[in-house]
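Notes from the pairing session

We agreed to fold both candidates in a single pass and log them together. This is the raw record for the first candidate, unedited. Please don't reformat it; downstream parsing expects exactly this layout.

Candidate A
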Amino acid sequence: MAATSNNTSRSIVIIGILFFIFGFVTWLNSVLIPYLKIACELNNFESYLVAFAFYISYLVMAIPSSRVLKLTGFKNGMSVGLLVMAVGTIIFIPAAMTRTYMLFLLGLFVQGTGLAILQTAANPYITILGPIESAAKRISIMGICNKVAGVIAPIVLGAIALKDADELVASLDSLTLAEKAEKLDELSGRVITPYIIMTIVLIGLAILIYFSALPEVETDSEDENLEEINKNKTSIFQFPHLLLGTLALFLYVGVEVIAGDTVISYGAAQGIEFETAKFFTSLTLGAMIVGYLIGIVAIPKYISQQKVLQISAILGVILGVAAILTNGIVSVLCISLLGLANALVWPAIWPLAIEGLGRFTKIGSSFLIMAIAGGAILPLGYGLLADKLDPKMAYIIVIPAYLYLWFFAVKGHKIRN
């Protein structure tokens, strides 16, 4: 038992490192959106194609990712995912040299593809590494690793990419075309060194994971109870709680990305300088860390996973409405505090959605990874509404999403036939 406990702890540490990488790469988008909006001269809708290109890869690549995992297993699949991400970060180098927006988007898509493979392996791995009733606690630990990286990433890249951005934006209209191009080229080149470093780190981690002692977890067999329950099941579409959970995760990732990736641009739209606004995403993720700490202490000892999901959904509605009804820093802080509402949604949905899948676990996990495409669709919808209405009223998009999360917590996860 002691050996098993040590193996589990070691595995949690290794997966925690991977979740740190997920967070670091993912939450760089919150800086890339305003940064590329300036460097490539984009409107709101065009700038949110950053989130679209990154997250749509989960929809396109989740099923192929499950096939990769069938060939490689969870452990080697994680190494493959890291190497694919490294290809995506390399693409950023010629993109920055030529200030070509489509190349930036291609790099983001490839990074997202690598993350799709990693997430398809790591999320079910940590979920089934111990008792299902405490899965939300383990995922909360992973969430802290993810969001600590998310707090650090925008600050680091923001300090490099958005340095003196307010002065640059103010001066652009007074420059000649040649001077403007020169300034924007210099701005574009700022990301070259950070992405070279990221490429080296990702390749190093891929090698480390490949030679690590991370154990393989078997999901293709079922215990006797599940074998009896699932004996007539021939398709993943015969698990309605998974399908409803997939939609819940789609909407959740959408509102999580909106809260994290739009808040810097929204702060600027509310008249707050970039020098201050660049910290808002870190504040959002800091609020998520507080939520994860609550989950680690409280789940399942004091509160169940489904009850946490209900409370989170209600808090999301309250903060979304408050952001729309207030102005300035108060409104921006309401968006950042959505991080607290969002923190325990992912940890709660995963175990509720994949419970009882047995031999369908890998394909079920692929469905849930596909749902991360919500981070592509909903922020794009926000960007469209921000152009048509205004950046504040565009947050109306989060309200129905949180209401559906409440439905899944109350009833949706119980529907098994």
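Candidate B (folded immediately after A)
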Amino acid sequence: MHSDQTLIDRTLAGESEAFGELVRRHQDRLFGSLSHLLGSVHDAADVAQDAFVLAYRNLNRFRGQSAFYSWLFRIAYNAAVNHQRRHRRKSQSLDGRREDLGDEPVDGRSSSDPASGIHTDERTRIVREALEELGDDYRNALILKEIEGLPYEEIASVMNCPVGTVRSRIHRARHELRDKLTRVLKPSDL
């Protein structure tokens, strides 16, 4: 298996199939990250495709100061932010959200009580809706930290802001999310 840098060098030398290997190597992770950020598998697919096209066009600007995926993710993140600005989220039914997300909430507990699964589905919906109500900068920082597991420094690079700003946004996002959830969930549900 070739390194990302080898594939980049081969692509820049005119071997377009080498870029295809980079796409195959990173597309699933990028798509998953964008799905969380955008809340829609359809939007994530569009933005991921745009990001790969932009990366291909600008591959000669990749300097190797970070991992290729970090550079690609930064391009995708910027494309996602632009997409969010163009297409402000509209409220829609739970069925519409499930279709957008491409999944159904799953109750990992084994229980013979059907109400248990309903309770979990409702809680999942409430958390998703509360997360969507956060401002884009707060929601995106929180998702990058809590769902994607990126370190603060990498989030700062992706979001093009100081690490202190990232820490502040994540702190504020957690606080706002907790406030929103305590208004609608019982303490035992948190």
